[in-house]
Amino acid sequence: MTAEKGQYVQLYNSLGYTFRDESLLREALTHPSLEGVNNYQRLEFVGDRVLGLVIAEWLYEKYPHEPEGGLASRHTNLVRRETCAEAAENIGLGDYIIMAKSAEDSGGRSRITILADICEAVIGAIYLEGGAEPARKLIRTYWRDFLKDANIAERDAKTRLQEWAQSRRIATPTYVTLNRKGPAHEPLFTIAVRMNGFEQQTGQGRSKREAEQAAAAKMLSLVEEVSA
Predict the structure, then answer these.
(1) Is the pLDDT assigned to residue 228 strictly greater than 60?
(2) Is 120 a catalytic residue?
(3) Quick one: 119 and 193 in the same domain?
(4) Model pTM greater than 0.70?
(5) CATH number of the domain where residue 184 is located
(6) Which residue among the candidates 27, 44, 86, 120 is catalytic per the annotation?
(7) Could you say which of 48, 117, 210, 212 is catalytic?
């Protein structure tokens, strides 16, 4: 697929950003099924980090009294693959993916993993060319509803981790209290979650449930990164 003059006008409107170097955008939109050309994987690596930082900054501002565990749980849900794919659909990125016919025929334009990767790659491309501010503007525009949606922002990390393990026939994660300190009226729990095949992750909270949720959120981040 070759670029046609003006083909990205509508996309630029959706992104709120116009690329000076259109080849950078094409790279961000190019699937690895096309051999011999630069694809989105390196830009996705950058975009993933930019998204994580912008969301962390945003949550810190929006929830000034939220403990670390709660912020971690919200962060995990807001940067997860499904959320990125939904953002890609809202932007309309699927129509612009450049891929081999075989990948397209197998439903590549609507596949969650591909949409999520493309979304992060475009964020990375905007960041590299335009800097942090246009990337932040894009993320805050398309993640605003996700942040407001309690079903996304406050989804139970323990439940999601258990579902992830079950879907892959891995033993149910177990939680172990490592430490409890502080006065009785304001305890601080440190709890580890253990799951076969992965390094244990720990979380802290003012209750066991909060600490377990924080640990589960960290484990989710780990397993999603490993399985990406």
Answers:
(1) no
(2) yes
(3) no
(4) no
(5) 3.30.160.20
(6) 120
(7) 48
